[in-house]
Amino acid sequence: MKNLTPILFILLSAFYSSAQKDRSLTFKDLDKSPLDVIMYRDSNKVAVARVIYSRPSKKEREIFGSLVPYDQIWRTGANEATEIAFYKDVMIDNQLVKAGSYSIYTIPGENQWSFILNSATTQSGTNYDPKRDILKATMDIIPSPQEIESFSISFVEQKQGAIIFLGWDETIASLEFTVVSS
Question: Which of 90, 115, 119, 152 qualifies as a cystine partner to 177, CB 3.0-4.6 A?
Answer without folding.
Answer: 90
